[in-house]
Design goal:
- The chain is mostly beta strands.
- The chain has one domain: Sandwich (Jelly Rolls), CATH 2.60.120.
- The protein is built from 4 helices and 21 strands.
- The strands form 5 sheets. Strands 1, 3, 7, 8, 10 and 11 form a 6-stranded mixed beta sheet that branches.
- Helix 3 packs across helix 4.
Length: 390
């Protein structure tokens, strides 16, 4: 299964989410929202700049100096990943981040991923294969899953995300995100070039610590995407078999395995998947943990995404409820108090996609009608929730 198909999006928890509570039945969560506003990209306590405390230091990584993004022919946006060596000589824990956009007129948003030493060769190969600095990327960093696909679902490789208006982000006291010696940072940049061109040299300040901290992990909850063509649409790619073959032709055989594997993971039938605008997936909780924040990830046809703990039970809790999806606002929504999850609990992700958006959005106008399945491309889709837990 192609790991990048399930290792996507980016969010960062902040100090305001750091209070500790007991069982999930006693912990309030964030109220459902009708609008996923820009503030959700940086759920932060006010901070003018990231400061290093005792046992901490600042490591700065960034886009190659004076990079000039160029959108593909017929497009207005470029998504590009840059592989950066932070120069670590020891294992560290990231306790905070601060983005410094080099050209706010064209920098739309950015996501940071961690590449372990085992993932570095794949990242460098992607970089070397592209004649421009970095490599083209859309859904995620496109790196192989560390420890296998299922392990990658329970602990993914992204660090943080930024969008305009975001300030310095800090993790809860006593928590950190691991970055091993010999690893790399992959910076995904989304450049919007519709109205302006220019150069960029965005930098990211990472606050790192060599202290022993509790690991903050990211659990991924994917669901299948089986979105038929809209009423009145027709064409070769409205046939599911042809649509899946098209994805495989663009991203390789592993992408087909991902599509089938998601059916198996979520109780579906790979040979007879259920086509619908709405898809769900239930996952059992396997570890005792506290959930601090939740984020969603879909592409351009997404409408709604939610995450529910123990759906249909007396202790049911809605952890995420985005009713007006915006692809460019993918940050974490912090829970009002951490929610404890324990083995025996169930987490459900639910997504709704709208195929009629294909003819409404400028980025998709002119693209052929198609049966949409899980895939990395702009015209493909995903249904993914991300839980920050520790």
């Amino acid at each position: 299964m192609r790991s990048s198909a399930v290792l996507v999006a980016g969010v960062m928890l902040v100090a305001g989410c750091a209070s500790h509570h007991g069982a999930h039945g006693d912990s309030p969560v964030a109220a459902p929202s009708d609008q996923h506003s820009a503030a959700h990209n940086a759920p932060t306590t006010a901070a003018a700049a990231l400061k290093a405390g005792s046992g901490e230091r600042i490591v700065t990584v960034g886009v190659p100096t004076d990079f000039a993004p160029q959108a593909p022919a017929g497009a207005t946006d470029e998504y590009r990943c840059f592989v950066v060596d932070p120069g670590l000589t020891e294992d560290v824990m990231i306790t905070g981040t601060e983005f410094q956009p080099g050209n706010p007129a064209i920098v739309h948003h950015s996501i940071l991923f961690a590449a372990t030493p085992e993932q570095v060769p794949a990242a460098e190969q992607l970089d070397a294969a592209d004649p421009e600095p970095g490599y083209e990327c859309f859904g995620g960093a496109m790196l192989p899953a560390r420890g296998g696909v299922l392990a990658g679902l329970d602990e993914s490789d992204w660090i943080t995300a930024w969008a305009p208006g975001g300030d310095a982000n800090e993790l809860p006291d006593g928590y950190g995100m691991a970055l091993p010696k010999g690893g790399r940072i992959v910076i995904q940049m989304h450049y919007n070039l519709r109205s302006e061109q220019g150069i960029d040299n965005t930098a990211v300040r990472l606050r790192v610590s060599d202290r022993t901290l509790k690991p903050l992990r990211t659990m991924l909850l994917p669901a299948p995407v089986e979105l038929p063509c809209a009423p009145g649409e027709s064409g070769r790619l409205c046939d599911r078999t042809d649509a899946v073959d098209d994805v495989v032709s663009r991203f390789g055989a592993d992408s087909g395995a991902t599509i089938a594997g998601l059916q198996l993971l979520c109780g579906g039938d790979p040979d007879a998947p259920r086509a619908s605008e709405v898809q769900t997936c239930d996952r059992p909780v396997t570890k005792d943990a506290k959930v601090f924040a939740v984020a969603g990830h879909m592409h351009l046809l997404g409408r709604e995404i939610s995450v529910t703990l123990n759906p249909g039970e007396a202790d049911e809790k809605v952890l995420l409820d985005i009713r007006n999806w915006d692809f460019d606002q993918q940050g974490a929504i912090p829970l009002t108090s951490p929610v404890r999850v324990v083995p025996g609990d169930t987490l459900r992700v639910k997504c709704r996609h709208d195929p009629t958006l294909r003819q409404q959005l400028p980025a998709l106008q002119g693209t052929p009608a198609r049966y949409v399945v899980w895939g990395e491309g702009t015209t493909d889709e995903m249904c993914l929730a991300i839980l920050l837990n520790g």
